[in-house]
Write a structure and sequence with these properties.
6-stranded antiparallel β-sheet; Rossmann fold; globular; about 35% helix; Glutamine Phosphoribosylpyrophosphate, subunit 1, domain 1; alpha/beta; 26 strands; 8-stranded antiparallel β-sheet; about 25% strand
Length: about 600
């Protein structure tokens, strides 16, 4: 957070940091300028630690910076927390991202007499700006950033050029807004939404000079840039807990609504088609696509794997789902007939953005699936489909994930009707997809049963999650949730791979979650469950309502409503989310802010 204006900066900075806190952090700090001196306070741990220190040391002033840090370079301590200053205590910097060449620059600056206080890469920028500073802060920032390699969202102010703050970005998000109170800059719209919903998102290589009355944007060579104002369409109240114990539970419970929003206006049931406004201009090009690759990271990559199954079946096009962090290090073969689909909840995932840049450099056709309006992916990909899930605050993604699955079905329907999919099949899929939000609501109405089941398994430290076909990626996603918020060693595997090694781990203390709806691979799943039971393993089955036979072999059963086989993953995801949530609560963990994790992974 950065602020310059007419009001006291400190309350505005703390408010913004609090609204950012879901992103994950391990320390925090503020620097406030009162016209004479800069006061700097930093603390480790939760933001409350910083607030307690500030009660004892209130900081007056109408210019300031605030930051929550997720440690990369250097340990978790007050010295390494941001902001960071130069030798003269003139220039103060906060930074998201990583400077890859900081060590070389640090050694050169030390040789020139600069003394460093921290172990961070960020402090190098403070001293480098000091090196170039001749009274004009933005010129010094531009000169310094030309030498920095890596990813950055930085905000800077200087005592000796006090009527401005400078913001710059490369592969790490920054957003600027003005209000009657002054000028604001933040890494996330949530931090400044209470001041204005009209925002300007900086693009890579851009520098903003922000005063209390206005701001200008240039590139690193000081060429002016014209910027579009984006109006954020969700309210601050939508990002509050709404009476739920945790944001994660609230967002799980919001899935009937978020799925309805993802489908609204996009299903043409009578025509058996999907209408996707973000792809209308590409209709002709999409007809010529003969190969698709889906690129994403984390849970979004599991949604991408589901998309691989769906799109191949509906459209008859070869599809390959790839992990964003590996894609750029391969030498992928594609041409103008290859479509690349990039998926990211935040739209700021560094590895996914790097893969996007690689695809665009090679002249590929690119589209995105993203939830955050105005995010980097949304702006850079060119065309795509918004999830319309609303803000997702908990670090572990829930409603954004299921909306990604729904959007991938829409894309499969869209491409399929261009090719081989009959109108009758399209109508059936559209009808069943339209009913999915109501079916999810039915699952959520049984959450108390899953809470009771969670008590039975809360002390387990190892889990398998198994599935086949469409539900194979959902086994990965279920295991990820247990890892993220329960700190359980859970692994998702294709059920057919059990006998190829993993079954060696099965015993009475190593239960398995088996996703086995009544579908084309149900009999195969029953065989896998039998193999586990023969080795004294316990099984939690996720099965279709009405299947009483499953109770004869599984230890516990969670039922989901009947739907088309290809749509069952949307339903089977929900009990996995609830099970992980309730286990985490019962183990006493911080569900919304799991250790070591951040909401937006903006470093590679």
């Amino acid at each position: 957070m950065g602020y310059i204006g007419k009001e006291q900066a400190l309350p505005l900075l703390i408010e913004g940091l609090r609204r950012h806190s879901y992103r994950g952090y391990d320390s925090s700090g503020v620097a406030v300028f009162d016209g004479n001196q800069v006061s700097l306070v930093r603390a480790t741990g939760k933001l409350e630690q910083l607030e307690q220190m500030l009660v004892r040391h209130p900081l007056p002033g109408s210019v300031g910076l605030g930051h929550t840090r997720w440690a990369t370079h250097g340990g978790i301590n007050e010295t390494n927390a941001h902001p960071h200053a130069d030798c003269k205590q003139n220039i103060f910097v906060i930074h998201n991202g990583i400077f890859e060449n900081y060590q070389i620059l640090k050694e050169k600056l030390q040789a020139q007499g600069h003394v460093f206080a921290s172990e961070t890469d960020t402090e190098v920028l403070s001293h480098l700006i000091e090196h170039f500073f001749k009274g004009n802060l933005e010129n010094a920032v531009r000169q310094a950033l030309v030498l920095m390699k890596g990813a950055y969202g930085v905000v800077v102010f200087a005592k000796q050029d006090p009527d401005k703050i400078i913001a710059a970005r490369l592969s790490a998000p920054l957003v600027v807004c003005m209000s009657d109170a002054g000028g604001f800059v933040a890494s996330d719209p949530a931090g400044i939404l209470s001041h204005s919903n009209k925002m300007v998102f900086l693009d890579d290589g851009e520098v903003a000079v922000i005063t209390k009355d206005s701001f200008t944007v240039t590139d690193l060579k000081n060429n002016p840039k014209e910027k579009t104002v984006t109006e954020i369409d969700w309210t601050l109240q939508e990002a509050q807990k709404g009476g739920y114990a945790h944001f994660m539970l609230k967002e799980i419970m919001e899935q009937p609504e978020s799925l309805t929003n993802a489908l609204r206006g996009r299903l043409m049931i009578g025509e058996g088609m999907a209408k996707l406004g973000g792809l209308e201009e590409l209709k002709k090009q999409l007809k010529d696509v003969n190969r698709i690759q889906i690129i994403a990271c984390g849970g979004a990559s599991y949604a991408g794997k589901f998309g691989e199954y769906i799109i191949e079946e509906l459209a008859g096009i070869p599809v390959h789902a790839d992990i964003g962090s590996e894609f750029r290090y391969r030498n992928p073969v594609f041409d103008k007939h290859t479509l690349s689909i990039f998926i990211s909840q935040s739209g700021e995932t560094a590895d996914t953005l790097a893969a996007l840049h690689e695809a665009k450099e090679r002249g590929g056709l690119t589209i995105g699936i993203v939830n955050v309006v105005g995010s980097t992916l949304a702006r850079e990909v060119g065309f795509g489909v918004y999830n319309h899930s609303g803000p997702e605050v908990a670090v572990a993604s829930t409603k954004a994930f299921t909306s990604q699955l729904a959007v991938l079905v829409l894309i499969g329907l869209f491409l399929g009707r261009q090719r081989q999919l009959s109108i009758a099949s399209g109508q059936q899929i559209a009808r069943e997809l339209n009913a999915i939000p109501g079916l999810v609501k039915r699952i959520l109405e049984k959450c108390s049963e899953i809470e009771i089941l969670a008590k039975k398994y809360k002390d387990v430290n190892d889990f398998w999650c198994i599935g086949r076909k469409y539900n194979y990626p959902i086994a990965w996603e279920g295991a990820l949730k247990l890892k993220e918020i329960c700190y359980i060693n859970a692994n998702g595997i294709a059920a057919g791979e059990l006998k190829h090694g993993p079954i060696a781990l099965i015993n009475e203390q190593f239960p398995t979650i088996a996703i086995c709806p009544s579908d084309s691979v149900y009999d195969k799943m029953i065989s896998n469950i039998a193999q586990i039971k023969a080795r004294n393993g316990k099984v939690i089955a996720i099965a279709t309502e009405g299947n009483e036979d499953i109770k004869r072999i599984a230890d516990d059963v969670i039922y989901i409503p009947k739907t088309l086989e290809m749509l069952t993953p949307i339903l089977s995801t929900v009990p996995l989310q609830l099970l992980a949530y309730y286990i985490s609560v019962q183990r006493g963990h911080d569900v919304d802010k799991p250790r070591n994790l951040a909401k937006s992974v903006t470093v590679e």
